[in-house]
Design goal:
Elements (H helix, E strand, L loop, with lengths): L10 E9 L1 H4 L10 E7 L1 E2 L2 E2 L12 H7 L1 H5 L1 H7 L5 E8 L5 E3 L3 H8 L6 E8 L4 E6 L5 H9 L7 E5 L5 E4 L5 E3 L3 E8 L5 E4 L15 H7 L8 E2 L9 E5 L4 E14 L6 E14 L2 E5 L4 E4 L5 E14 L2
Antiparallel strand pairs: 1-2, 2-5, 3-4, 5-12, 6-13, 7-10, 7-12, 8-9, 8-11, 10-14, 15-16, 16-20, 17-18, 17-19, 17-20
Amino acid sequence: MLFYPLQFEPILKERIWGGTKLKTLLNKPITSEITGESWEISTVENDVSVVANGAFAGKTLNELIDLYPAEILGNIVYARFGKQFPLLFKYLDAREDLSIQLHPNDELAKKRHNSFGKTEMWYVMQADENARLIVGFKEKSSPVEYLSHLNDKTLLDILDTKKVQSGDVFMLETGTIHAIGAGIVIAEIQQTSDITYRVYDFDRKDANGNTRELHVDLALEALNYDKIEAQRFYDKNENTFNTVVDCPYFTTGFIPLNGSAVFSKTNDSFKVLMAVEGDFSLLVNGESYHYKKGSTVLLPAVITDYQLDGLASVLEISIS
């Protein structure tokens, strides 16, 4: 069996805060003016990615992993996670502010939801002028202070905001209170989990006049009340892998591509490439594959040598 770079049909999600930038900036086939998310690679229950290209077209990622676990996932990943794909890749378009929320850690998520926790990172692809993120508390807080501000609708007074621009990266450990602000497009890399505790939603109502469910009680135990520094700074040396985030759940690097770059790896882990700016070509086993901004590509673990060509910014993600 000759394995090749895999692309998947995007799983598009309407959101009350979504817009149209996933189409205008990232070429996604959206048909709604409130599309907030494109799930690029997913094995979340009821949202499993389907291969869009090549000999495996029409098969789900779970089917491929079931047939070829070590070849797709890699030796280390297969040994650690079995036939589970441990990460979820998305693009998000926030036309309006997202809810203020947080995610549980592995232990709590397993106990409550039989799920992974949700450690995640954001790469800002585009940001309108003065666009901001909410990440953590301004100063160390407590359950009493937090609940007091939540009940008084003054929660924003104690939360830290960051003005952002293209290329900014934030690493969100589980328990970090956060929100993506209006006017931001983000590439998101996270554990395979769809567990979110929403604590404040600006009293918004949907098209039917209903407010969205809040999870205030569940969030209390999951919250990290410490002041944290989530922003990550990284090198941008051309045509090479610059480490951005290296955590137990994933390693992400930034590749500023200007011309050609040749890479070799072991078969311990799959790799995922996300085209966050520009277009590039990928040369594998003598075949050339072409990708535009907004593309996401899964390289099965058995592909150990490849070449990138073009003028682009690429995120490369694996598990070590």
